[in-house]
């Protein structure tokens, strides 16, 4: 029982991070039907910005988090503007290959500029364990920070999407871009805004990972990027609550596999999940088969 | 009010419009009738700025709007109810109407929504419902209501009768007439020539990218060629 709860908490922490990354995948897919393979690398840039901000600028947690969000946001919007927008009317495959190219550019650019060595993230929060119910539940302060920050981000995102004008425009563009244009929506600006939010959330995930695992490197985005992509597909790509639930589930499954089986199987199980969803329910847990009325 | 001159539009190698001229005067209902593929929707999509012409111009109140982006055209007062309604299916009725008022910054939006509800009481009953669950007729009402929320000077309507039961079509056309009587100029594209000619002031007949006939609706209704091709003999 104790191991189970321990692994559950570990899984939910990791899952919150996957969910934050998965949200960016799913939002970008929703609005322009593109799997942005560079998204995992935007997360890496966020982690490094947080690292530099706290190590060299000696900023506290919140200012480094905000700076990381800002840098990733600018990077994400720039990538869309420079690499994806000119190809938006071209075939889907050219923009997908461009995304892979951007991803490789950021990874190898990162190796050149930052060196491939693994850096140790500063201990912003000195680890401290809290235990409840006679030690049945133990949780670290870092995990609490991860939960609190993730919940704030996800609630904030829901508010933006459902309560603001730009959020409504995002939903309208994702259903029918031309109809949205006919209502006066500036589609280019809406797409930029989507990249901005998705990239900022990835940066948050990057900083949280740095705090949780204490180490970052220029290739750190590859695996979590793929896992978060699987999480987005698991929940139903393009569906925002799907990405949140998918991310949490992925984290919990990985933690349980590591806890009860072996961490060697962890990645294998994740990819097996992807194959199983694609075989059984390609639209994901929250996906509906949309039928149009004529 | 709206003036289209020598408009040429093509999709790749296909010339959809081969130089059409048309005019809509303030307060009129003008209809464009024609068969499938004649270029009717292309005309409206070009006026709305979604498609860009190869040649020719579109003027609105003497301002050239040919190269303006779609959102500026909506902002100037031209709004379209597109073919197939194209409502935002996973948003609520109310959110769809709010999308119609997307560019507006005045504080009359609420009271204009009441006006739309007055015009279409069915929408008021269902304002919280997800738009995709509405019936075809209700979706058409929503599409018209959404466009009205932008407070258009000219309303472009593309096949509002499509896929609807005859009784519903009559209702929709009655509403279009009353929207016009309230001061909105209307450019109506229809395959249902009979209904369109019955409410229009003037009409154009579009055939494979060219205007083949034009004139007062009452005259065209009795024209032998129109009768034969579009009114079923």
Automatic annotation (TrEMBL), chain A:
Query: What's the family?
Result: Belongs to the binding-protein-dependent transport system permease family. LivHM subfamily.
Alphabetical UniProt keywords: Amino-acid transport, Cell inner membrane, Cell membrane, Membrane, Transmembrane, Transmembrane helix, Transport
Q: Which organism is it from?
A: Thermoanaerobacterium butyriciformans
Protein name listed in UniProt: Branched-chain amino acid transport system permease protein
Q: Which PANTHER family match?
A: BRANCHED-CHAIN AMINO ACID TRANSPORT SYSTEM PERMEASE PROTEIN LIVH, HIGH-AFFINITY BRANCHED-CHAIN AMINO ACID TRANSPORT SYSTEM PERMEASE PROTEIN LIVH
Q: Which CDD domains is this protein grouped with? A: TM_PBP1_LivH_like
Lineage of this protein's species?
Bacteria, Bacillati, Bacillota, Clostridia, Thermoanaerobacterales
Its annotated compartments are: Cell membrane
- Report the transmembrane regions from the record: 12-30, 65-83, 95-115, 135-161, 191-213, 228-257, 269-287
TrEMBL record, chain B:
Q: Which residues form the ABC transporter domain?
A: 2-233
Pfam families of this UniProt entry?
Answer: ABC_tran (PF00005)
Q: Which family does it belong to?
A: Belongs to the ABC transporter superfamily.
User: Mind telling me which InterPro entries this protein's record contains?
Assistant: AAA+_ATPase, ABC_branched_ATPase_LivF/BraG, ABC_transporter-like_ATP-bd, ABC_transporter-like_CS, BCAA_Transport_ATP-bd_LivF, P-loop_NTPase
Which Gene Ontology terms cover its molecular function?
Answer: ATP binding
User: What organism is this sequence from?
Assistant: Thermoanaerobacterium butyriciformans
The identity of this protein, by name, is Branched-chain amino acid transport system ATP-binding protein
Q: Which domain of life is it from?
A: Bacteria
**Entry keywords, A to Z:** Amino-acid transport, ATP-binding, Nucleotide-binding, Transport
């Amino acid at each position: 029982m104790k191991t189970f709860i321990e692994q559950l908490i570990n899984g939910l922490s990791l899952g919150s991070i996957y969910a934050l990354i998965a949200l960016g995948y799913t939002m970008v897919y929703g609005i322009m039907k593109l799997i942005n393979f560079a998204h995992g690398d935007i997360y890496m840039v966020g982690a490094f910005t947080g690292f530099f901000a706290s190590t060299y600028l000696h900023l506290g947690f919140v200012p480094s988090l905000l700076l990381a969000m800002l840098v990733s946001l600018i990077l994400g919007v720039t990538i869309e503007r420079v690499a994806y927008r000119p190809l938006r009317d071209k075939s889907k495959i050219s923009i997908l290959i461009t995304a892979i190219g951007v991803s490789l550019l950021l990874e190898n650019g990162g190796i050149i500029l930052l060196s491939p060595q693994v850096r140790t993230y500063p201990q912003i929060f000195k680890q401290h364990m809290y235990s409840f119910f006679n030690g049945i539940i133990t949780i670290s302060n870092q995990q609490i920070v991860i939960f609190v920050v993730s919940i704030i981000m996800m609630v904030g995102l829901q508010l933006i999407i459902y309560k603001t004008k730009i959020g409504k425009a995002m939903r309208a563009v994702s259903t029918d871009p031309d109809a949205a244009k006919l209502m006066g929506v500036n589609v280019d600006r809406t797409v930029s805004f989507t990249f901005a939010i998705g990239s900022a959330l990835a940066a948050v995930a990057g900083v949280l990972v740095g705090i949780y695992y204490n180490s970052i490197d220029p290739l750190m985005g590859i695996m979590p990027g793929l896992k978060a992509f699987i999480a987005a597909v698991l929940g139903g790509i393009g569906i925002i609550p799907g990405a949140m639930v998918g991310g949490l589930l992925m984290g919990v499954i990985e933690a349980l596999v590591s806890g009860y089986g072996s961490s060697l199987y962890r990645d294998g199980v994740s990819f097996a999940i992807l194959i199983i969803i694609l075989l059984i329910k390609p639209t994901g847990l929250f996906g509906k088969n949309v039928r149009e009325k004529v | 009010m709206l003036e289209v001159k020598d408009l040429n539009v093509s999709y790749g190698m296909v010339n959809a419009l081969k130089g059409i001229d048309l005019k809509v005067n303030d307060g009129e209902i003008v209809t464009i009738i024609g068969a499938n593929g004649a270029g009717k929707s292309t005309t409206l999509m070009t006026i709305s700025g979604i498609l860009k012409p190869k040649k020719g111009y579109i003027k609105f109140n003497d301002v050239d709007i040919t190269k303006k982006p779609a959102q500026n055209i909506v902002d100037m007062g031209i709004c379209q109810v597109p073919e197939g309604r194209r409502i935002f299916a996973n948003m609520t009725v109310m959110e769809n109407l709010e999308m119609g008022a997307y560019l507006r910054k005045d504080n009359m939006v609420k009271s204009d929504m009441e006006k739309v509800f007055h015009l279409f009481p069915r929408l008021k009953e269902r304002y919280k419902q997800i738009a995709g669950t509405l019936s075809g007729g209700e979706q058409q009402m929503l599409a018209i209501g959404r466009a009205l929320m932008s407070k258009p000077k000219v309303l472009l309507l593309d096949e509002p009768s499509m896929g609807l039961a005859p009784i519903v079509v009559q209702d929709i056309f009655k509403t279009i007439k009353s929207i016009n009587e309230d001061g909105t100029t209307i450019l109506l594209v229809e395959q249902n020539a009979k209904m369109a000619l019955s409410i229009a002031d003037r009409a154009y007949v579009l055939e494979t990218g060219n205007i083949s006939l034009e004139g007062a609706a009452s005259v065209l209704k009795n024209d032998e060629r129109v009768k034969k091709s579009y009114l079923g003999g």
